[in-house]
Request: fold
Amino acid sequence: KAGVTQTPRYLIKTRGQQVTLSCSPISGHRSVSWYQQTPGQGLQFLFEYFSETQRNKGNFPGRFSGRQFSNSRSEMNVSTLELGDSALYLCASSLGQGITGELFFGEGSRLTVL
Amino acid sequence: AQSVAQPEDQVNVAEGNPLTVKCTYSVSGNPYLFWYVQYPNRGLQFLLKYITGDNLVKGSYGFEAEFNKSQTSFHLKKPSALVSDSALYFCAVRDGGNSGGYQKVTFGTGTKLQVIP
Reply:
């Protein structure tokens, strides 16, 4: 069974640009959540989607947005990039509606903003 | 609001010795607790979880964790550390109680485990 796939794995952008990151969950998983990981802040929750609906959102500015498609694949977008957006962005999937299930993480997309 | 604390940024232990990585939590309802491990330049991997039942939970790679409701703790343990256990360990919690709405998973800041040969 294929794991969670995130693309691209590495990318470099400049300030002011925008970026779109993609996440394909494990087959059959309907919930996808996104986290930002930085050395100083640890793992910060961005948002979580279930069946194309955002069911929770973290404390990030509106420049950070996401969506989920009918096949459960998810994308997140960051507009007007800032230096502080440099981070490892992790996507995780889970079976879905229940809250007792563990998360399955992808390898992450490492974003560097210059 | 739910929260998780991992009081140690780094834990050093000699190979073959027992290890403990500490975690305390705060939730208003029932705690659903998890441990994850992260190797360099990789995503997180699930180790074990506590939902209900026996306070001692066994997980992958010989790890176990003890749920202590009175101390609101969920410490990760292993009887004999291996050099390959060296990694970043995260404790996480989800509030399964009556706080209303759907609660996200909150992660601790992580503890770097260094096993010394």
Observations:
- Chain B has a mean pLDDT of 91.
- Residues 82 and 114 of chain B are 10 Å apart (CA to CA).
- The longest strand of chain B covers residues 87-95.
